[in-house]
Amino acid sequence: MLALSLFLIVIRETTVIFSITFLIILLLNIFNYKVILLGISLFTILFLSWNITFWILAGHQNLKIGGDFEIVKVYSHSFIIKYNNINVLIKMFKHHYKVGNIIYVSGKISMIEKITSFNKSVNVFLEIHKPFIKFISNNENTNYFHTRPFPSNIFLNLILFSKKIPESKEVNELLNQLNISHFFVISGFHFSILFFILNFMLKKIKFTKNISEAITL
């Protein structure tokens, strides 16, 4: 209950700032009905989203879980997994885990009592205190390309998965300085282009339509 109250206080601080700003805007546009309607709609949406978020997090309080999870973020003394698509923090003073590792986790979820700017920045308000953890495996795709020789492992992860591995720090800085880092962000648009090119080439060398589409998958 204390943790839920603290979370509500954090949300309430944001709500107070937003409410004051919202009120000022309405007062400055008191005769503009379009702005008034837009402001009321925006306030309603944000108010509902805050309450829904609160009740979702509250529903996980003291929830016992057990299962295999993938580590999505790693820090010096903690890491984050996702449960029901919600970030859950696990604190460990010493650990050797990496992003993509699959681990078995068993424990009780609770609200983080002291919510800091770090928690807000990574959007994590739940934690598992002293869980049972067992290493299961590496993420197969990430592990295979991660073990390739330098610098192939860096560029394969960047190009194929847009994933920055620890060893890629210097390369990432160089790409940013050259202003070409965006070339290594693969989107659905890029994959569509690759599909059409490969499909076109296969048709030109007399592959049937079904076979060529199967290969490009």
TrEMBL record:
What is the protein name stated in its UniProt record? ComEC/Rec2-related protein domain-containing protein
Protein's organism: Metamycoplasma hyosynoviae
> Which residue numbers delimit the ComEC/Rec2-related protein domain?
168-210
Annotated transmembrane regions: 6-28, 35-58, 180-202
Q: Which domain of life is it from?
A: Bacteria
Please provide the record's keywords in A-Z order.
Membrane, Transmembrane, Transmembrane helix
Output the InterPro entries linked to this UniProt entry: ComEC_N
